[in-house]
């Protein structure tokens, strides 16, 4: 038997035994180390007769490969057995709870304001704001509600001084005045914000939210007003059809004025918007009174348009089935969690107002 | 304004049903608030007499009354009214009755241990008036009615209309009927009141003083002598009761009837109680009189009073006085029909907090030409019912009514309403409403009816025309989906970003009132001015908030009481610095209480701490686009924070404006408001102090550069005095070479063994990387030495060997 064959037989036998990793490494070094058996054989190649050299080299390479592969696979086998053994010990009860997390929420009023802004954004309205503390002029007089006008009784006003010159705004309409005084027509704005009236019971809160709308241009008439509100209500309630009714009313700052009702019905204790024979008042609106335009130095013979005011809290209540206004400002953790929205649910045009 | 269809039919001929009426009223702007059926429910309310009262054994304020409800039936009723006494005639509601005001159904109930069978009602509970002081007191006339229904059977429902303040003419049946007729709902009944032709002299002299601010423009009156006042006839009583009014006596009932019927308030005086004629004048400061509500009023100067020689008889157009009031024994009556200036009425009524049916009408504007009609109608009824002789009518006035004229361009109608109606139709509507219309070339010359104080310009005419033709005729013009200006400005975008960023860190958004309790506000007011509300809804809501913390703490506390332990709330909204418009700032305020990972099987409990608040604050600002490496933080904070565990954050070293505070709430405050939690930390971001980004995201994203050369991390441990801040070390290291020092991280802070007292060890890891080449040992050694030297020089630190 040639040396090569002997080496092969001997080591195949050795490798067929059960070996641990150090034994295998020993074998590896016995064969392929600096003075290992295979390494030594390679050094011999030059001394072999030329006629036999080619075959010897070829045989040697084959044996080398065979043994080498076998060693590698043995090592792999052992290593993975080792890992498997370790994993066996590492098994845990995966049904144990995850590390705790907390979810924050966006208040339904904030979410509703974002929904409203998103809808009006698409038809070209931009958002304006004004201060919560207003002067008497912007809140009343400029809006064609002079002192001693009985319409002031409809606003139970919080005052900050005895002369009643400074007050908490009773509606978002003073933002109309500020906007028109600041810029030149045309105007196309909405103004959401906090409003205040000294009224507190089951259905009234001393603070609530309104959104004002104002569109002034050369030929804006009541048809535009009706179309705009119809569009808004449909989009807001995410329904295809809406039953809407305009009925005459009175606000000192608009003429003609209207209140808008939407049709609804109660099905399984839930309010369904857009169907049924019941009417629900949701907003007031009208054509901006020429006296208001004059007060803000806009020429009513050239410009005209509409304004509207909507109760935001009320819209949120209707859309999300909230039946107690007072709860909005009560900060009950359970309530906020239940009616709040995930901060990632941003109302947008492209993905819709809500999920 | 409460009406019934039956009464309305006195003025309107129609075959239409009540259902149509309700619809049409709303369609023309006379909104139906509610419809209530009187008949069925109210049959239960009986006239009754209290025959005995005893003190309630278990309650000082309550009485146990034996009540005679007719046919020898006596009921025991527990009653709290002070005026409940033996012999009083009143109104009794049995168990099962529904109280009109509260809509609650009565049941037999034990009140403090004594069983009460039914209830004795106040006028306010029956919606008869606002009088809620005590139970209803009926006159002797009702004695014969004991056991009978108080309310007469009525087929007509009570229709409550919400009349807008611009329509005083619709505070009477006549005006409502006129509007309905104009809109095509029936035909207006012609009711020309016949004039009184009398030869009797009016012997009582009336004078309106011509003085500055005189609130009475005209005062019409007539004298009716030798009347016999009595209870009203059934038809009149029924009429008043049908709209929820309480009959008093024929003379008073007649004046009320005329007021509701044609919206003409009147007042009846007992002429014999008037001393030497009437003077209408401004009141003098301090004058007093007792009004018909039995209250004494002390007047300021300049209020319009009706007076005689002895003093004030009544407040013109608001309320009469007891001294000259009519009684059943009144023989001679002076009937007043006047015109008072709305502003004057309103001022006086407001100052005295008085509200009456007459005031409500005069302050909105009564038809100045209805003075005579009112006198004619009422005087004739008095004569019919009470007998007597009517005198000539006397009208004193200081101004004559001028008819308002408007030139109306019919084209304006379509320009504003967006739809068309014919000229013929326009003229018909206006004439039906009482306008006189004359065509003048392409325009209409209009005379405005005297009962419409609300109409003064063309747009008012447009409103009338749209209203009567019907709002359903207005077209829908779809909005155009086009945007010329961005929807939100940069500040608003930042607002929305911060709001959602804070929420995403586990905070629930709260919206709380802009006002708060002074006591709580004071804890967080710091050096700010207190802003009082003059007329707060309650003393606990008396000031505008100077900080959001007072409300958040209050609500955190309430939630702790509800049994929650670990809470995070935030609010984004205004705080106030002064009482002028604009003296407010927008603040994002977060507050966390309790622990992190309470009762967790995997994580250790720990209290929320200042570094949680700091993380939420810094992360929020970083997410919003501010660079944390530029932040400057020190520990100067307002007194409501824990002095040692709180910080102030600036967006950069310039220390221009305070961007935020964060920290533990001062333990003294927690003690004072008795809040039971392991820990309470918060932060405030002052939005106006955040610099708005000048660049858009698209401009910020342009260049992307990074270094692929090897980076090295070197650790240093410095020993410094305790009062040296970690930030000082970080800043010193960063300043060594901005192009090489990429990151500086504090990974350990140690005090104690092996460290001298008053000193601490801070361990810092520094990442060093060049963007030009791989640094060799030599380079690194150089920069190491430089770092050590710089830190030692700048902060007095010593490298730990």
How would you explain this protein's 3D organization?
The complex is a heterodimer of chains A (355) and B (801). Helix content of chain A is 39%, strand content 21%. Chain A has 355 residues and is an alpha+beta fold. Chain A has 2 domains: 3-89, no CATH class; 108-339, Bira Bifunctional Protein, Domain 2 (BirA Bifunctional Protein, domain 2, 2-Layer Sandwich), CATH 3.30.930.10. In chain A, a hairpin with a 2-residue loop joins β7 and β8. Chain A is rod-shaped. Chain B is of the alpha+beta class. Chain B has 6 domains: 2-38 and 157-164 and 174-188; 44-145, Beta Barrel (OB fold (Dihydrolipoamide Acetyltransferase, E2P)); 206-397, 3-Layer(bba) Sandwich (Phenylalanyl-tRNA Synthetase, Chain B, domain 3), CATH 3.50.40.10; 405-469, 2-Layer Sandwich (Phenylalanyl-tRNA Synthetase, Chain B, domain 1); 490-689, Bira Bifunctional Protein, Domain 2 (BirA Bifunctional Protein, domain 2), CATH 3.30.930.10; 707-799, Alpha-Beta Plaits. Helices cover 25% and strands 26% of the residues of chain B. In chain B, β41 (741-750) and β42 form a beta hairpin. The longest helix of chain B is centred in the last third of the chain and has 19 residues, at 777-795. Chain B is elongated and about 130 Å long. Chain B starts with a strand and ends with a strand. In chain B, 41% of the residues are buried. Chains A and B meet through α5, β1, β2, β4 and α8 of A and α7, α10, α12, α13 and β28 of B.
